[in-house]
Amino acid sequence: MSTFLDLLNERVVVFDGAMGSSLQSLDLTVEDWGGPNFENCSENLLYTRPDAIETVHSNFLEVGCDVIETNSFGGSEVVLAEFGIVEKTYDVNRKAAELAKRVAGDFSTAGKPRFVAGSIGPGTKLPTLGHITYRDLKAAYVQQIRGLFDGGADIFIVETCQDLLQTKAALAAIYDLFEEKRTRIPVIAQVTIETFGTMLNGTEIGAALTALEPFPIDVIGMNCGTGPKQMADSFKFLCDNSPLPVSVLPNAGLPEVKDGKQHYDETPESFAAQVEHFAKDLGANVVGGCCGTSPEHLRMLIERVDGLEPKRRDARLAPSASSIYFQQPYTQDASFLIVGERVNASGSKKMRDLLDAEDWDGLTALAKSQER
């Protein structure tokens, strides 16, 4: 049976769609969530309504998705502490992975294997903004990552990244686990570019690529934040410059409230057409959906990309440095630099005399006379 990385080389791989909005569509009661203190804590549903999670997984697998993500997006200690269940961090994530693996196994065949990606979200505290230290955030990911790994996740996906330090903290915790276990599974890192064209902290896509490409990740990509229209320019940059396989999991457009409910403006048809373009014309290796994307969005996307071979990209990242905001290529001007020695009050009597006389026109003429 093919591994995920084998499949990645053979054809475009399709991830599932939204977990959160899919759960909301089930009209769960407050009691289903575990009481008012746990409303919208989807991880707690692993204890109170695991069948709801199973339904979401099954619905995406039924339409043909290759990969489903675990119900663990908010499964770090940072987030679970806010609901008073930090001590359940390992168990939550192990349960999430085990449930997804069981459901994926029911659909998996030799000809069409299904995989489980352990979802690791950004949490609610960003180190660059001083909410938490890098060291503490890395430690907060340890039990989440261990639980997903022990539960059988085939892939780690560090997603919806809004802060490069947060992304690095999660990746560092993952590679510590690999070193301990003396094995590894594929790793995907996905950043979120907001409607204003950068990550939440102001990081442009070039800086994100430059900062993350040196990590031993297998796929780099984008998800959430916006729909495919707003992602197009940043994703094209990624395809043109990333030597790694690339992924794109947009929202179903931008959200708005209609009749008291959240609504996304991309129909399954329009969503599928745009994401097909990302795969067929730009070279996306992994596609899927994020907030607002339903099984119907994914069904129509799969109809368009089923069996599609990855577009060959001869992308090469220019040697660069990255700040938190910008990519700075290492460019070097090979020509020599001509220095006008006469524009120097220490070495030129004429320059001193013009300065003493405050003859600014004369000084300008002196400088221009040295131009070549």
Please explain how this structure is put together.
The chain has 372 residues and is an alpha/beta fold. It has two domains: 319 residues, Homocysteine-binding-like domain (TIM Barrel), CATH 3.20.20.330; 40 residues, no CATH class. Helices cover 43% and strands 13% of the residues. It contains 15 helices and twelve strands. The chain has an eight-stranded parallel β-sheet. Strands 8-9 form a two-stranded antiparallel sheet. The chain has a two-stranded antiparallel ribbon with strand order 11-12. Helix 5 runs parallel beside helix 7, helix 11 packs parallel to helix 12 and helix 12 runs parallel beside helix 13. The longest helix has 19 residues. The radius of gyration is 26 Å and the shape is elongated. It starts with a helix and ends with a helix.
Mean pLDDT: 94
Number of strands: 12
Shape type: elongated
| CATH T-level fold name of the largest domain | TIM Barrel
Helix tally equals 15
Global Rg: 26 Å
Shape-level CATH architecture of the largest domain? Alpha-Beta Barrel
What proportion strand? 5-15%
Overall tally of structural domains: 2
Question: Which strands sit side by side, in order, in the main sheet?
Answer: 1-10-7-6-5-4-3-2
Low-confidence spans: none
* CATH superfamily membership of the largest domain: Homocysteine-binding-like domain
